[in-house]
Amino acid sequence: MKLNTxxxxxxxxxxxxxxxxxxxxTDKKSGEPILGVNVVAGEKGTFTNERGEFQLDVPRxxxxxxxxxxxxxxxIKAHTNMSVAMIEAVIMSxxxxxxAGLSDESLQKVASSVTVITGDHIRETGxxxxxxxxxQIPNLNWAGGTSRPRYFQIRGIGERSHYFGxxxxxxxxxxxxxxxxxxxxxxxxxxxxxxxxxxxxxxxSSVYGPNAMAGLISLKSTDPTDHFEMRTSTSFGSDNxxxxxxxxxxxxxxx
Length: 255
Fold this sequence. Notes:
Layout: H1 2-17, E1 18-27, E2 38-41, E3 44-47, E4 53-59, E5 63-67, E6 74-77, E7 82-86, E8 97-98, E9 105-106, E10 113-118, H2 119-125, E11 140-145, E12 148-154, E13 173-177, E14 180-181, E15 194-201, H3 205-208, E16 215-221, E17 229-237, E18 241-249
Protein name: TonB-dependent receptor plug domain-containing protein
Membrane topology: Multi-pass membrane protein
Main location: membrane
């Protein structure tokens, strides 16, 4: 009997500790509900719905963490019928400089339509060739086969094939690697040691000539430094696949 009594009181005590916490999360400035706010308490968590509402079974008094992209993270003690007003956060980002134009210019000030892929993004995706990134770039397509080069099209303009008898090549999308014009040579786009990729959508003939009537793809490798460094990567796969890449930075002389 004593054992049953203890178990009964333990159950009541546990139910008293665990409570169903509900609430709503809104934007402090506009008062509008926020969808998709992360509400976390230890190993438990949930998201707010389209009405900004959430529900979580946690002990009373535990601290809940509210976080969302573009808002300041808040930590508040759990209680019933919570009302949380989130404050917008200022997100500071590194300025992106476009280098393939007539002069280096901030991406925000470039008049042309430009897509910029940074080296950090390349490393995050794990892509080892430019072809792996083409699906992420709006209005950029390519055509080709295993026995011939790739040809690019920007906004539908560009070469789709070039077989014998089709006349001289007339590439409409320029392809530049460290200011070297490689237009029409296929997809020379290994991304190892690439610092930035810029895709200009629209005529760039004033800078790069007739090969850039539809646009330009520019790859920029990592700038050298004043100290010695070396990076190497290897890859192995099925069908006896193996590969390797290496880059070395050596300081030869002072200017």
